[in-house]
Amino acid sequence: LKLFETNLTGEFFIMKVEIKYPNQEFFATVSEIDIKCISDDDFLKLEKVINSYGVTVIKDQKVNDEHQIEFSKKFGELEISIGTNTKKENNPYIKPQISRISNVDIRTNEMIPPNDHKVIFDRGNNVWHTDSSFKPIPAKFSILSAREIPEEGGGTEFIDACYALETWKNNNRKYSLEDIKEAITEHSIVYSRMQNTGDIFNDKFKTDMPFVKQRLVRTHPYTKRSAFYAGSHCSHIIGWDKDEGRNLINEINDWVINSGEIASHKWNSGEVVIWDNRRVQHRGTGFDESKYRRIMHRTTVAGDKPSYEEHVNI
Ligand code: OGA
Ligand code: MN
């Protein structure tokens, strides 16, 4: 189903949908819904919008963790956060389904110093990536809610890796899509953070988070369009010379961010943004962590199976 309309009239609500890049069917903004009490009918429409456009901004929401989890569970099973200060079992301050991206200590409500490992870890999000590609079953949707935003900076950018794949064939490349469409890569968050933030992990984290296999090209089950699937966690290609594979991954990562337009989102407090990790990459734009507070809470909808079990159709 293609949704080009700007107004989808529901049975109970009128959901307003605006598309930023209609030629790419990329980046929707939805208003006039309340995710705390969304009807089943509107939920189905919203899910179609998210599947169709990759990123969906939902304006004017005021949600707490319970609301966010309740809403997120409608899309499927939720991941348990690996977040450095949220993962502890029986943590009374935060639910395990919430990834807190923040320089504010949840226990004290005080700012965390910029050289603290938690702040450094979160800064790793400022490199283009797709969430949880370092897990054996990678994430489907991420649902990020702005609880407190800095006065300056702290935006989030998105890019369409589907558009990047569809425009790859127009270029004079060493490898065609045919050559690489069945390639299997390995991803690791220890690898990516080592590149971007330095060694901030203990041995237990390193052994708990080994390399996992992912497809380099994934076909979206709803749109049937394919996208590159790489980003910062993607290290090398199985069965390839390591440098040759890494060069190709770098070339793809480069093309992903240079092929289409970067959608830059400036947050309003209370907004919720949902993105499809199977199709888009994202990154934080950074902010002055010594000066401003930023509190973002993410829920993450788990995928259905390992990506290498998926079929690719180009
Ligand atoms: C995330 C993420 C970027 C940001 O929550 O997965 O990468 O701007 N966030 O906080
Ligand atoms: Mn992320």
Question: What does this molecule look like?
Answer:
The protein is globular. An eight-stranded mixed β-sheet has the order 1-2-3-4-14-6-16-5, sandwiched between helices. The longest helix is centred in the C-terminal third of the chain and has 18 residues, at 242-259. 23% of the residues lie in helices and 25% in strands. Helix 4 packs across helix 8 (242-259). The protein has helices at residues 40-53, 65-72, 117-123, 161-168, 177-180, 189-196, 203-208, 242-259, and strands at 7-9, 14-21, 26-31, 55-58, 99-102, 139-148, 156-160, 184-187, 212-215, 217-219, 226-228, 234-237, 263-265, 272-276, 280-284, 295-302. With 314 residues, the protein is an alpha+beta fold. The structure holds N-oxalylglycine and manganese (II) ion. Residues 101, 125, 131, 142, 144, 156, 282, 284, 296, 298 line the site of N-oxalylglycine.
What are the SSEs and their pairings?
Layout: E1 7-9, E2 14-21, E3 26-31, H1 40-53, E4 55-58, H2 65-72, E5 99-102, H3 117-123, E6 139-148, E7 156-160, H4 161-168, H5 177-180, E8 184-187, H6 189-196, H7 203-208, E9 212-215, E10 217-219, E11 226-228, E12 234-237, H8 242-259, E13 263-265, E14 272-276, E15 280-284, E16 295-302
Parallel strand pairs: 3-4
Antiparallel strand pairs: 1-2, 2-3, 4-14, 5-16, 6-14, 6-16, 7-13, 7-15, 8-9, 8-12, 10-11
Helix pairs in contact: 4-8
Bound molecules: N-oxalylglycine (OGA) and manganese (II) ion.
